[in-house]
Design goal:
Elements (H helix, E strand, L loop, with lengths): L1 H7 L18 E2 L8 H25 L10 H12 L12 H22 L1 H23 L4 E4 L3 H12 L7 E5 L2 H9 L3 E4 L5 H6 L7 E4 L4 H14 L4 E6 L5 H7 L3 E4 H14 L1 H10 L7 E6 L15 E7 L2 E4 L13 E6 L9 E2 L1
Parallel strand pairs: 2-3, 2-5, 3-4, 5-6, 6-7
Antiparallel strand pairs: 1-4, 8-11, 8-12, 9-10, 9-11
Helix pairs in contact: 2-3, 2-4, 11-12
């Protein structure tokens, strides 16, 4: 079954096998704000002026090596008509030294001047080369990052939570096939990959095999299942968190390899129901889910003086105990006492209240 699914969703051309320059339109690495066109024009004009003045000085220093003894104005005139390739021919080098300087210095300067004149074309070529080098460097160095597959409402909320939790934007990669969504992600400083998360080659160029965690947040449940299957096959050790709309599809996500499944429709439905009866509860829930303000649900390591104690008796309001990667609720038998190496899921009092805090 996995083989059939893989064959169905594998493209004819494997993106992961393409050279880096062919991925310029696929992978986008955010850069600083674009420079003003007027700034670029002024900068190029300044460089061109420097070239003309440099050639004029060289000609003036060797003023006896030309068909007539040059004044500085003559040297400036010669430099202008020479580097601009106008070449009237009224002034020409005649000595060996002057001709050598023209060959080794003035001719390259003339070429540089011409390059400035066709700066628009050169700029495009340079930009592509720069992006190719960026992509090459990024693909070699990216490690322990988080991949967000789908940048809709759920994907954007996941990114907002990660950024609020001090995860660097450079460590978040967004995969989506919608150009508008990718532009929004790029504006936030995120690395973006254009393509479908169901494609193994798209996941490969996003560095899925080296990712720390993968968030699966597409628009439909069937897509979420296919994405999770592909992601788990490429990243057996990554933490995969998937969103599903309907609860009957939860087991499909779990069987596909998701470590955690969030049922979006039921969660939203419960909050809507609560809002009609006790709207303040919904307000408090939203506060708990906002890591950058008010109270928040947090996770921390157990301290030495807490080992052996009951979670209910600790200073923090503990909600559960995480042991060996598994959550035990506060009312379960396994969470009766705190053990060495456990982590506590508790209600924090705001950002920075305790060291080693991992908010959710």
């Amino acid at each position: 079954m996995r083989k059939r699914i893989r064959e169905r969703f594998t493209s004819d051309v494997e993106l992961s096998e393409l050279p880096n320059h062919a991925l310029v339109g696929v992978i986008t690495i955010p850069t600083s704000a674009a420079t003003s066109p007027w700034t670029l024009i002024t900068r190029r004009f300044f460089y061109a002026l420097l070239i003309v003045l440099g050639v004029a000085l060289l000609a003036y220093v060797d003023k006896d090596g030309y068909t007539e003894e040059l004044t500085f104005i003559d040297a400036l005139y010669y430099a202008t008509v020479s580097v601009s390739t106008t070449g009237y021919g009224d002034i020409a080098p005649v000595t060996q030294t002057a001709r050598l300087v023209n060959t080794l210095v003035i001719t390259p300067a003339r070429l540089a001047f011409l390059i400035l004149l066709v700066g628009t074309t050169l700029s495009i070529l340079t930009e592509n080369s720069r992006k190719t080098l960026q992509i090459q460097r990024w693909r070699k160095t990216v490690r322990n990052h988080t991949i967000i597959i789908g940048y809709g409402t759920k994907g954007r909320s996941a990114v907002a939570a990660l950024l609020a939790d001090d995860v660097p934007a450079s460590q978040i990669v967004v995969i989506d096939h919608n150009a508008t969504s990718l532009n929004k992600a790029e504006q936030q400083g995120l690395v973006t990959v254009h393509g479908s998360g169901t494609k193994a080659d798209v996941l490969k160029i996003a560095g899925a095999s080296r990712a720390r965690s993968i968030v699966v947040a597409p628009d439909t449940d069937d897509t979420a299942v296919l994405v999770t299957l592909s992601a788990r096959e490429l990243a057996p050790d990554a933490l995969i968190v998937a969103s599903v709309r309907e609860s009957e599809n939860q087991h499909l996500l779990e069987q596909s390899g998701a470590d955690s499944v969030v049922i979006s429709s039921e969660t939203a439905g419960r909050l809507l129901g609560l809002a009609t009866v006790t709207p303040t509860v919904v307000e408090m829930m939203e506060d708990l889910l906002s890591p950058d303000e008010g109270f928040s649900i947090a996770e921390r390591a157990v301290r030495e003086d807490e080992v052996g104690a009951k979670p209910r008796h600790l200073a923090d309001l503990v909600l559960g105990v995480v042991r060996a990667g598994r959550l035990h609720r506060i009312d379960s038998e396994e969470a009766g006492t705190v053990k060495q190496g456990d982590r506590l899921l508790y209600i924090g009092r705001g950002p920075g209240d305790l060291p080693e805090v991992k908010r959710t």
